[in-house]
Amino acid sequence: MLKTSLSVLLLTSLAGCATSSYTYAPPKEHTITKQIIINEDFDAVWDRLVRNLASDFFVINNIEKNSRIINVSFSSTTPSSYVDCGITTRKFSNARGDNTYAYNPADSSKYTLTNDQGALFNAIRTSKLDGRSNIYLAPSGTGTLLTVNTKYVVDVNVKYFDVNNLPGGNDNFTFDFSTKEKYEKDGISCTAIGNLEQKIIDYSR
Questions:
Q1: pTM for the full model?
Q2: What does the buried/exposed string (b/e) look like for 136-174 if buried means 16 or more CB atoms within 10 Å of the residue's CB?
Q3: What's the pLDDT tens digit per position in 146-176?
């Protein structure tokens, strides 16, 4: 009992002199290729693209050769492989020292912070990316036109725990945007980085 009491007193003392702060840097500009002309016959490009999409992590939701449309969906637990939401840098200080946490807001992360009353909390941030791509293929002269546009949805859940590891609440965020239009809300910006679009283009060649 005495050890437990001393431990609680120590944690309370450390939390009492704790401070935290954060800064945010928006994403950089990314050059995204979303339309190309392939110097090959439409049927050959279509067949190759469908075969390669089916062999990767894509789920083909709809495919209409007559309409020239392929719709695929995908998901990832490492959103920053495909999107850039800038960098959040958090600083936390207490009697034990200083800690700095830097992360892409689209990704999972862990950090320690204090609330407005100075209480200390550990945060566990879990994120997931879900997306859908519309791919348009059509004959263009002697070649084939390919256009791709992707809708990205990043869902983030943050769980907070106090110094005794008891639940202290949670937050949920969603960043919803596309290849054509970036996300800008509540001081956060998100944009595609072009890796997903380039992957689809490469599969057509």
A1: 0.87
A2: ebeeeeeebbbebbbbbbbebebebbbbeeeebeeeebe
A3: 999 999 999 999 999 998 999 999 999 999 9
